[in-house]
């Protein structure tokens, strides 16, 4: 029997509420598809930071390295600056484990009303592929003359040929398996060194995939087209910053950020990959038990797909789609009165049927 060891980091806020529901659903899938999952829990979070001064122990990355995958909720607390929680946990994991692909599917599901009400379910179905290791989120820079009139802040964007080519190739490979269309997010009119370099790499990789259609938009109009014509897209690839913005906009277009999943992938499988919902710790609703667990559950399904349990992954997706379509057990973000637990239980029941 196949067996997987998973590191679980629920984190803060609603992360602690939605992660148990995703475990419950994966356990049901494991029984049905005859595989075994061993979970190891880590309490690394802003709470840990307030007690120990660190988001994770000094050897945290070494502890994670031996797992098959990492399932993460969300980190962030109003009392801890966001750059501390992000750079103390998430970014070191993404970088050390070379999780250079951040894959974020956007799909309009049956039973969910999009603000773009004229689209039928299924017609909006694309993926955002975000570069996850370099780009605008670099720690190259500095501040000078702090607290004076001459104060200045500089931050460098880092685009390496290796880093740009591998994310573009990932996007084209993915499109070749889907609807054969890649869109690049650029801004080579305003950002005149790094973005023309990105465009050159994009044209070079597009030539390697003549069967895949390619086009590019400047990020500003691309955000408008996400709202006006979300059905135009199949795979949208962007740098770290552009991909980050597009992957919050995409889920908003299809109804709720509470549904949106993501995978931080190390495609070479040299290191564990990490699976987490797009949303954060949502302090505004934390502790109320009403967070939508579907983003977390869908992320866990992406984890099973990555581990080779494709049947179980598809069954989990079918289960939450069926529950959504029935419109009986919806959390408040989807216009219902269900709780995190009752929606998680309904999805588990649907899976067991
Ligand atoms: P957020 O995603 O936590 O919340 C944005 C809005 O969406 C809130 O109104 C929230 O109630 C709602 N929402 C989010 N997830 C939901 C769910 N599952 N069900 C129902 N409603 C949901 O983003 P925000 O407010 O910008 O950040 C809050 C904290 O989370 C910050 O500390 C931030 O740094 C952190 N964060 C962490 C991320 C991560 O761990 N990957 C990602 C994004 C933010
Ligand atoms: Mg984001």
Descriptive notes:
- With 353 residues, the protein is of the alpha/beta class.
- It is 41% helix and 20% strand.
- It contains 11 helices and 12 strands.
- The strands form 2 sheets. A 10-stranded mixed sheet has the order 2-1-3-12-11-4-5-10-8-9, with helices on both faces. The protein has a two-stranded antiparallel ribbon with strand order 6-7.
- The longest helix has 19 residues, at 15-33.
- The two termini are 22 Å apart.
- Bound molecules: 1,4-dihydronicotinamide adenine dinucleotide and magnesium ion.
- Magnesium ion is lined by residues 244, 248.
Short description:
It contains 11 helices and 12 strands. It is α/β, with parallel strands linked by helices and 353 residues long.
Draw up the topology in text.
Layout: E1 3-11, H1 15-33, E2 36-41, H2 46-52, H3 60-65, E3 69-74, H4 82-96, E4 101-107, E5 125-131, E6 141-144, E7 152-155, H5 161-177, E8 181-186, H6 194-208, E9 213-218, H7 219-228, E10 235-238, H8 240-253, E11 261-265, E12 273-277, H9 294-306, H10 310-326, H11 340-352
Parallel strand pairs: 1-2, 1-3, 3-12, 5-10, 8-9, 8-10
Antiparallel strand pairs: 4-5, 4-11, 6-7, 11-12
Bound molecules: 1,4-dihydronicotinamide adenine dinucleotide and magnesium ion.
């Amino acid at each position: 029997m196949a067996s997987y060891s998973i590191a679980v980091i629920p984190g803060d806020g609603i992360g602690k509420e939605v992660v148990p529901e995703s475990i419950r659903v994966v356990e049901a899938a494991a029984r049905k598809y005859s595989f075994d999952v061993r979970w190891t829990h880590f309490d690394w979070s802003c709470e840990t930071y307030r007690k120990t001064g660190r988001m994770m122990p000094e050897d945290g990355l070494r502890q994670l390295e031996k797992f098959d995958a990492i399932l993460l909720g969300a980190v962030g607390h109003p009392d801890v600056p966001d750059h501390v929680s992000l750079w103390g946990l998430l970014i070191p994991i993404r970088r050390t484990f070379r999780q250079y692909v951040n894959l974020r599917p956007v799909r309009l599901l049956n039973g969910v009303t999009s603000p773009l009400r004229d689209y039928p379910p299924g017609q909006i179905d694309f993926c955002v592929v975000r570069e996850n290791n370099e780009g605008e989120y670099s720690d190259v820079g500095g501040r000078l003359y702090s607290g004076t009139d001459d104060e200045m802040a500089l931050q460098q964007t880092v685009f390496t040929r290796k880093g740009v080519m591998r994310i573009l190739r990932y996007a084209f490979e993915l499109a070749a398996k889907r609807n054969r269309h890649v869109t690049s997010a650029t801004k080579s009119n305003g950002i005149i060194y790094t973005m023309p370099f990105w465009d050159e790499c994009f044209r070079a990789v597009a030539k390697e995939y003549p069967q895949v259609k390619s086009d590019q938009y400047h990020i500003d109009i691309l955000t408008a087209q996400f709202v006006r014509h979300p059905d135009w897209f199949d795979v949208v690839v962007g740098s770290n910053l552009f991909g980050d913005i597009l992957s919050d906009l995409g889920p908003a277009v299809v109804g709720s950020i509470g549904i949106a999943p993501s995978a931080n992938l190390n495609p070479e499988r040299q290191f564990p990959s990490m699976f987490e919902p797009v949303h954060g710790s949502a302090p505004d609703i934390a502790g109320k038990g009403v967070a939508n667990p579907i983003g977390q559950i869908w992320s866990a399904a992406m984890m099973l797909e990555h581990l080779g349990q494709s049947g179980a992954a598809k069954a989990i997706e079918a289960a939450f789609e069926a529950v959504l379509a029935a419109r009986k057990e919806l959390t408040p973000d989807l216009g219902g009165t269900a709780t995190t637990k009752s929606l998680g239980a309904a999805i588990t029941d649907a899976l067991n049927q």
